[in-house]
Design goal:
It comes from Galdieria yellowstonensis. Residues 85-259 form the Uracil-DNA glycosylase-like domain. α8 (202-222) packs across α9. The protein has 296 residues and is of the alpha/beta class. The protein has helices at 39-55, 70-73, 75-85, 104-107, 114-119, 152-165, 168-172, 202-222, 232-242, 261-266, 268-278; strands at residues 66-68, 92-96, 175-179, 184-186, 192-193, 226-230, 248-251. The strands form 2 sheets. Strands 3-2-6-7 form a 4-stranded parallel β-sheet, sandwiched between helices. The protein contains 11 helices and 7 strands. The protein has a single domain, classed as Uracil-DNA Glycosylase, subunit E, CATH 3.40.470.10.
Length: 296
Amino acid sequence: MLFCAQGRLLLGHPRRSLKHCHRCYSPSIHMSNTTPENPSAERLLEWESTLVKELQTLRFPSPVSFIYSPLEYAWPLHEEYVRRYYRPTARVLFVGMNPGPFGMVQSGIPFGDVVIVKEWLDIRGDLVFTALPERVHPKRPILGLHCPRREVSGQRFWGWARQGWHSSDRFFSWAFVYNYCPLAFLSSSGKNISLEQLREGNSKTELLRHCNRCLLYLVDDWKPLVIFGLGKFAYQMCDQVVGHLCPVYMLPHPSPANPKSGAYWSQWSAVANDIQKADASLLYTNTTFQENKYVQ
């Protein structure tokens, strides 16, 4: 028989973590106790870990039937993403809304299309199976980096980044990508429910309050030169919460639900032009970017 750290019997999936069961699992348990090489990244991970625990108690009315929390079951992947790519020298922040069913829901990484995560971000690993949600919609299984479906939003956003910077190391020396909310919401049919579609009430109010606080901590600590909200909702929340700390602009969300976003994000220059409209110096704030063949 196998037991978790708190003495509870582990049953079920043979690949489950042997350290923690779903009742005592917490992302903070997995955080390193060694002296951090990147204190900023460790602070962000601690804030996100706290955010996850704060959101665990919230219950949402219809149309929400399923809630996925990838920062619990995909924490090891997310932790590697933050520790490798959240760099104090970068000064541009892209903010998305919340996890997509074939992106961050699977990988724990914003817009985290699994092929991009493995091949361009060079992140690999397994899920914490004991932290998977107790209820999973049969049409939206959680398969981690083995998910066969692609995240269109992730293909478009990270495809744009790869087109302009070629390597993930160069891109993240210039920017970081963050999701405002770490939860994904599904209806009884498996349809994705956006934050805008959540019914007004105490749960939504508390959700936004906790997410606002984590965003404020991040921006106040990291001090980006500029923030780009991907889509109207992300832009509005960033402008409301941290607009007093730095300029906030909106870029079209790369979702397939936006009929114009495919052509827009497929052209590096189209997005770059909008970034330069916000601040002409942004694309030149990092010396490695000046070598980019796309910059004239």
